[in-house]
Amino acid sequence: MRIPYDELFDGLLRVLLKLGFEQQRARLCARLFTDASRDGVYSHGLNRFPQFVRMIQTGVIAVDAEPELVTSFGSLERWDGKSGPGTLNAYRCMDRAIARSRQQGIGCVALANTNHWMRGGSYGWQAADAGVIGICWTNTMANLPPWGASDPRVGNNPVIIAVPRGKGHVVLDMAMSQFSYGALASYRMRGEPLPVEGGFDAAGWLTRDPVAIEASRRPLPIGYWKGSGLALMLDLV
Amino acid sequence: MRIPYDELFDGLLRVLLKLGFEQQRARLCARLFTDASRDGVYSHGLNRFPQFVRMIQTGVIAVDAEPELVTSFGSLERWDGKSGPGTLNAYRCMDRAIARSRQQGIGCVALANTNHWMRGGSYGWQAADAGVIGICWTNTMANLPPWGASDPRVGNNPVIIAVPRGKGHVVLDMAMSQFSYGALASYRMRGEPLPVEGGFDAAGWLTRDPVAIEASRRPLPIGYWKGSGLALMLDLV
Fold first, then answer.
1. C-beta atoms of B230 and A161 within 8 A
2. Nearest Cβ partner of B105 from A74, A163, A229?
């Protein structure tokens, strides 16, 4: 079943307005979810929307909270997300980073007290659309075992690099695990095995079974020890 | 056979002075080669020194060329390496990036017309020793096939991330191939197979044989398509 873009957008917009979002913020939020679905990233588009709604209903996400500038120095800014919607906080901060880069050559914004930004690539596209190189990443829960460990201690922190080009931007958006949990869920829902080993099962054997990896929470990092190291560094920086 | 640090340093220093290096530059260059060997990165330490000497003797590297500032804007600077020694050019540019970061929050220096910087991690340690986070990478020859391709079109561009800490810095220094060519050479010289598949042989099969991968020039990127994407982005940025 295929749903026209506008139909999905309108449906999500209606829900967001009912939840108390101000009109402009509801439109941006609906667009970010709809764009992710349009681009095939269902795991951070429509499929995630019900959870987003629940987090608003349970008060984890503050619908009308706007991020605030905490400190600023040269190319750097620190912002407090005030537990507002992660998508809107991230969008606002990328906007600030873009503005700052025009004055300083580089703009770098750190954002705290926020929640899931859904598809990180959205903010890479945002930068590229503005004609600048965009690099961003986020930490996440400890859901990836460091190389050689059996329990999750680092996050599979996604990193995004976007380079603007006249004939179509080049945007990389990837998690530090060989398969993100969103990708594992997609394979599970399609009933397909992974194309290559993607993690360990409960007994510690490498497996292509997405269900076994979701259960063990032991996905493989990209490049074995290398992705594990990169994940650690993204946590540290 | 183990060689004391000072003995190696003195030996390299003597050769560099004979080649026409000015005293201070010779000392820094000898130190960078010696440190890499001390830390076990022989492929970019002593093992590479004869090739470095040949490049000076054939005029590829200009012993006394100093890098020059080309343009500057906010956090950014562009430098021309003037074909001087890659190690000294890189060290100078990281020094500039550190200085600029103290004024601007971030310092970013791009360096052209240079040659091999040997161990990239050296400049990460340099940043961390100065108390700042260091991120650097370089492009290289096309020695890595993009995902799905059989001929090398992107470089296995190494990336370095260094985070300073009182009790020992954390420094990541890795190539975009699962095994760098330096690492392949180390396994070959020890007569050992790789611990995991590291690339394709001439017939297109995955192999742990370092010799077969050096011959095919088809190393695996880290994380299959993910490392391939990251390598591309490092080329583009």
1. yes
2. A74
The pairing of strands A108-112 and A76-80 is parallel
Our CA angle for B139, B173, B137, nearest 5°, is 25
- Give CA separation, B124 vs B60, B65, B141, B161, B192, in Å: 26, 23, 22, 6, 30
Q: Do B39 and B33 touch, CB atoms closer than 8 A?
A: no
Which region among A53-57, B81-85, B233-237 has the lowest average model confidence (pLDDT)?
Answer: B233-237
Asked if B178 has any chain A CB less than 8 Å from its own CB, the reply is yes
**pLDDT higher than 80, residue B235:** no
| Rg (chain B; Cα; Å) | 18
Asked if residue B81 has pLDDT above 80, the reply is: yes
Confidence at A70, pLDDT banded by 50, 70, 90 = very high
Query: CA–CA separation, B113 vs B159, rounded Å?
Result: 19
Task: Please give the pLDDT value at position B228.
Answer: 73
A236 shares contact with chain B (CB less than 8 Å): yes
Among A161, A178, A229, beta carbon nearest to B223: A178
Q: Do A133 and B237 touch (CB under 8 A)?
A: yes
3-class secondary-structure state, position B120: coil
3-state secondary structure of B67: coil
Q: Which residue out of A31, A44, A48, A96 is catalytically annotated?
A: A44
Sign of CA dihedral A211, A217, A218, A219: positive
The alpha-helical segments, DSSP class H, found in chain B are 5-18, 23-38, 49-57, 86-104, 121-129, 181-190, 210-216, 225-236
Query: Is the Cβ pair A170, B236 closer than 8 Å?
Result: yes
- Those residues whose C-beta lies under 8 Å from the C-beta of residue A153, and which sit 6 or more positions away, are A142, A144, A145, A146
> Scanning every residue of chain A, which has its alpha carbon at the shortest distance from the alpha carbon of B236?
A163
pLDDT of res. A226: 76
User: What's the burial of A91, exposed, middle or buried (CB within 10 Å: 0-12/13-18/19+)?
Assistant: buried
Domains with residue ranges and CATH for chain B: 5-57 (1.10.1530), 68-176+223-236 (3.30.1370.60), 181-216 (3.30.60.50)
Q: Is A227 on the interface with B (CB under 8 A)?
A: yes
A23-38 vs A121-129: helix crossing angle, rounded to 10: 110
**The two structure tokens encoding residue B237:** 């940025």
Q: Are A61 and A84 in contact (CB under 8 A)?
A: yes
B window 25-84, beta carbon within 8 A of A: 73-76
